[in-house]
């Protein structure tokens, strides 16, 4: 997992990061069935995101975005955007567990880190569909 830089003035991901992680073209996104997810909420698992939300008001809203070499975890809190890149080859499993929690199991430094998110009840089916995309075929999926 890697912190992704944003431009100071616009809040957009810097161009060199988009190049590093490989952005899909519009037609490639259409073939994937879209690259972005519905929103959910960050719970735990990343020191970087934990630091970002510490002391801030409001819910840490997350949307995922599929890149060619990473899954972007885009977190918005108090109108600020922060991005964590989960390198695709290090994403080992995706689990939906009781109480509408989603867990990304990521290989890092010889161990598995777990990023946990809370899915709004009305968006559970959409997230199951999102993580059923062929993009995630190389990692195991456990949907309860």
Describe the structure.
With 144 residues, the protein is α+β, with helices and mostly antiparallel strands. The chain has a single domain (2-143), classed as Pleckstrin-homology domain (PH domain)/Phosphotyrosine-binding domain (PTB) (PH-domain like, Roll). It is 19% helix and 40% strand. The protein contains 4 helices and 9 strands. The chain has helices at residues 15-21, 26-32, 47-53, 124-130, and strands at 2-4, 40-44, 61-66, 70-77, 80-87, 91-97, 101-108, 111-118, 140-143. It has a 9-stranded mixed sheet with strand order 1-5-4-3-2-8-7-6-9.
Secondary structure: elements and pairs:
Elements: E1 2-4, H1 15-21, H2 26-32, E2 40-44, H3 47-53, E3 61-66, E4 70-77, E5 80-87, E6 91-97, E7 101-108, E8 111-118, H4 124-130, E9 140-143
Parallel strand pairs: 6-9
Antiparallel strand pairs: 1-5, 2-3, 2-8, 3-4, 4-5, 6-7, 7-8
Shape: globular
Q: Compute the number of strand runs.
A: 9
| Number of separate helices | 4
Give the low-confidence spans: none
The CATH level-2 architecture is identified as Roll
Beta percentage is: 35-45%
Ends apart, CA distance between termini = 26 Å
User: Over the alpha carbons, how many angstroms does the gyration radius reach?
Assistant: 15 Å
Structural class: alpha+beta
Helix and strand run: EHHEHEEEEEEHE
What's the number of domains?
Answer: 1
What's the story with the biggest beta sheet?
9 strands, mixed
What is the helix content?
10-25%
- Can you identify the CATH class? Mainly Beta
CATH H-level name... which superfamily? Pleckstrin-homology domain (PH domain)/Phosphotyrosine-binding domain (PTB)
Mean pLDDT: 83
Q: Order of strands across the widest beta sheet?
A: 1-5-4-3-2-8-7-6-9
In the CATH hierarchy, the third-tier topology is known as PH-domain like
């Amino acid at each position: 997992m890697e912190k992704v830089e944003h431009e100071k003035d616009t809040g957009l991901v810097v161009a060199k990061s988009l190049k590093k992680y490989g952005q899909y073209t519009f037609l490639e996104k259409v073939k994937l069935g879209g690259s972005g997810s519905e929103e959910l909420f960050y719970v735990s698992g990343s020191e970087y995101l934990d630091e970002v939300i510490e002391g801030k008001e409001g819910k840490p809203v997350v949307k995922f975005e599929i890149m060619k070499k990473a899954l972007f975890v885009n977190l918005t809190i108090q109108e600020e955007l922060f991005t964590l890149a989960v390198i695709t080859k290090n994403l080992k499993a995706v689990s939906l567990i009781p109480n509408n929690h989603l867990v990304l199991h990521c290989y890092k430094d010889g161990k598995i880190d777990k990023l946990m998110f809370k899915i709004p009840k009305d968006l559970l089916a959409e997230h199951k569909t999102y993580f059923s995309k062929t993009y995630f075929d190389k990692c195991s999926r456990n949907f309860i």
